[in-house]
What we know:
Elements: H1 4-9, H2 14-28, H3 34-41, H4 45-58, E1 61-66, E2 76-80, E3 86-92, E4 96-103, E5 108-115, H5 122-137, E6 145-152, E7 156-157, E8 162-163, H6 178-185, E9 189-193, H7 194-206, E10 213-218, E11 222-228, E12 231-232, H8 263-267, H9 269-281, H10 288-292, H11 299-307, H12 311-335, E13 339-343, H13 351-364, H14 367-370, E14 374-377, H15 384-400, H16 402-405
Parallel strand pairs: 3-6, 6-9, 10-13, 13-14
Antiparallel strand pairs: 1-2, 3-4, 4-5, 7-8, 10-11, 11-12
Helix pairs in contact: 2-4, 3-4, 7-15, 9-12, 11-12, 12-13
Amino acid sequence: MTTDSTLRFGAQTDEVTSLLRIVNLVRTGEATTRPEIGKVTGLGRGVVSQRVDQAISIGFLGDGDFGASSGGRAPRTLRFRSEQGRIIICALGAAHIRVGIAALDGDVIDHAHRTWDIAQGPVKTINAVMSLVDDVLRKHPEVPVWGVVVGLPGPVDFATGQPVAPPIMPGWNGFDVRTPFEERFNAPVWVDNDSNLLALGERARRRDSLTDLIYCKIGSGVGAGLLSKGRIHRGANGAAGDIGHVRVSDSDVPCRCGKVGCLEAVAGGWALVRDAEQAIKDGVATSLAGRTKKGALNLEDITLAAQAGDSLAIGLIQKSAHVAGETISALVNMFNPGVIVIGGAIASAGEVFLAEVRQRVYELSLPLATRDLTITLSVNDEREPLRGGAELAREQLFDITFPRWFADGHPSPEREAVPA
């Protein structure tokens, strides 16, 4: 049998390539018996047996149950050992922290949540995240961490893991997010925009690895995750999908980013709260006036009021949907997705928001681009960004970096230098 050292230093030989492919065939369920692997790969029976034995000895595969017989002896199935490692996902929002742990098959095992103002800065926030992760890990048997994913509510340079001038995250610009997690968990770390995680979560939920999809998140801010044939499109510097700062025509409303007329400043959650509070001051009759006596308004208050028939809340939601629909229509003409998913806190407004978006998109987009288009609401499951983070880690581990570390049996931090 080929030794580990041969595998480690053998570069991308046919042997290494076929071994990696076999592990991934079993991992994805495309082939789970030795005969199936032979049919898919074209490898002979002896070569398949040798590669499978190697994968078992390294620890990636294990024997499963017996499969269906086609007339002779029933073949034993193989299984990917998803229990051998854990993925940690940390999904940060403007006003909350959500963390979870997942097995290597993407199944979210446990999760936790707490309110948090991300404007408190990176050091305090990362300490709070670590504490919450530790609380979750203590409830489960100790298993090696194979990867960590951190989602942030702002632009991220994916290559370095650094936030880039995030409007609602003072003190985060250029901060080295990866290193504290690498040092704490001794595992590779990926940092990405939260909308990208949500798009990947939607891909996993739909079980469509080649989907063309746009996930539009409208919460306190506005952003989008773009999937092209199932792959995240991040652009040259990670700024793709940052639709919150697209200029809205005829608007001169100041935005938190320092510009004027941004979509977020008109249609984002903080903008709707601002407009609702101003309307209340102006004496507009609304059920939201009573809510302000209990504390500051938030977007959820407005969506709930809209569902209850409050005219001010409905008007604000429809205004947001109207201008958001215009921006989304431009994406439809340019990107031609098959699915648009509306998520974030605004999704709880339901058809009040969705109907207006649909109308604007179909009015302003080309007929060919909308011929097979589906526009729908997200499932609004708080675990979606965690599933998306697990998808990102699995993609990076097994589709991209696998050849660099598989001979060791587990990944290690790549320790790439982060520019000062």
